[in-house]
Write a structure and sequence with these properties.
The radius of gyration is 20 Å and the shape is globular. It is α/β, with parallel strands linked by helices and 352 residues long. Helices cover 42% and strands 16% of the residues. Strand 5, helix 6 and strand 6 form a beta-alpha-beta unit. It has a domain of 240 residues: Rossmann fold (3-Layer(aba) Sandwich).
Length: 352
């Protein structure tokens, strides 16, 4: 099949592109604006593949989106392009509304026009696959899991914009018949992760000898999903799931933020000990909590396991070890990003 991946130069998007080109015969065309969090170096390993294509474009640009879709003539559109960092949404919510809501609308309109012109059986197998987040469900207490039936209750500008985009996608299925599928995932981690997020930020700050900022007391809980496992799930859903389906994708790996940071420190202690013989955990520093910080997220992924046979290949421990090792071996990749796009400063505390 021919697959368009929006946001394909981002963290999860590039993992999807690498998986599709390395593990399938699909042709993949990336549509990416190349914002601060996207880099084509994440696709260097597959950029020479004859089945790979790339267009720099904004999903809010209707004419550019239409041109890409007409050129590629896709069987599948995997929609990953999004502003995705909660702290940045607190500082500047406008970009999240524009990209996540308006951009999704523009893409849906172009996809619908394309799909309506397809002949059978291509029309029947076409999929618009929308990738979303568990954050749309709000916060959990000490017990319970998010399921596909959990009511939406977003708490941040980011999660509200993603909830809105989810509703738009489902509306285009119910109203226009556009064959869509949706996945809501838990926190991803792994290679090529932009260093504003928790795990890579802790790695690069630890190596720089800087304090490791932990929000509040580090008690907030997240479910962690290795990015390559997520990429396999996305492929399974758009290849096999029925139109209109929704699946939750999680790692069955709940950890407090403090447990995650300590895990990063322990891995660094093993792989690159500090010169002074001390542990990296000595660098941990508690900082003011994020405004409106949801306490706990946890995904019930039993539906995708039962329906499509998906399962995780990495535990949190094996995945974290691979991630830390990758960052140690690829300092050129993230060093260039720090020099160009992000210097590790604290985000999300801007006051009105």
């Amino acid at each position: 099949m021919r697959v368009v991946v929006t946001g394909g130069a981002g963290f999860i998007g590039s993992a999807v592109v690498r998986h599709l080109l390395n593990e399938t015969d699909h042709a993949v065309h990336v549509l990416d604006k190349l914002t601060y969090a996207s880099t084509l170096t994440s696709l260097d390993s597959v950029s020479g593949n004859r089945r790979y294509g790339f267009t720099k474009a904004d999903i809010c640009d209707a004419s550019a989106v239409k041109a890409v879709i007409e050129e590629v003539d896709p069987d599948v559109i995997v929609h990953l392009a999004a502003e995705s960092h909660v702290d940045r949404s607190i500082d500047g919510p406008g970009a999240f509304i524009e990209t996540n809501l308006v951009g999704t609308f523009v893409l849906l309109q172009a996809a619908r026009a394309h799909w309506s012109r397809l002949p059978e059986p291509r029309k029947a197998r076409f999929r618009f696959h929308h990738v979303s987040t568990d954050e749309v469900f709000g916060a959990l207490g000490d017990e319970g899991l998010f399921t596909e039936e959990t009511a939406y209750d977003p708490r941040s500008p980011y999660s509200a914009s993603k909830a809105g985009s989810d509703h738009l996608v489902r509306a285009w299925w119910h109203t226009y018949g556009l064959p869509i599928t949706v996945t809501n995932c838990s926190n991803n981690y792994g290679p090529y992760h932009f260093p504003e997020k928790l795990i890579p930020l802790m790695i690069v700050k630890a190596l720089a000898g800087e304090p490791l900022p932990v929000y509040g007391r580090g008690e907030n809980v997240r479910d962690w999903l290795y990015v390559d496992d997520h990429a396999r799930a996305i492929r399974l859903v758009f290849e096999k799931a029925a139109p209109g389906s929704t699946y939750n994708v999680g790692g069955r790996a709940e950890r407090t933020n403090m447990e995650v940071v300590l895990g990063v420190c322990a891995a660094l202690d093993r792989l690159r000990p500090r010169a002074d013989g001390k542990g990296y955990a000595d660098q941990i520093a508690f900082v003011t909590d994020r405004p409106g910080h949801d306490f706990r997220y946890a995904i019930d992924c039993s539906r995708i396991e039962a329906d499509l046979g998906w399962s995780q290949t990495e535990t949190f421990e094996t995945g974290l070890a691979k991630t830390v090792a990758w960052f140690l071996e690829n300092e050129d990749w993230w060093g260039a990003i720090l020099a160009r796009n992000y210097s590790g400063e604290r985000l999300g505390l801007k006051q009105p």
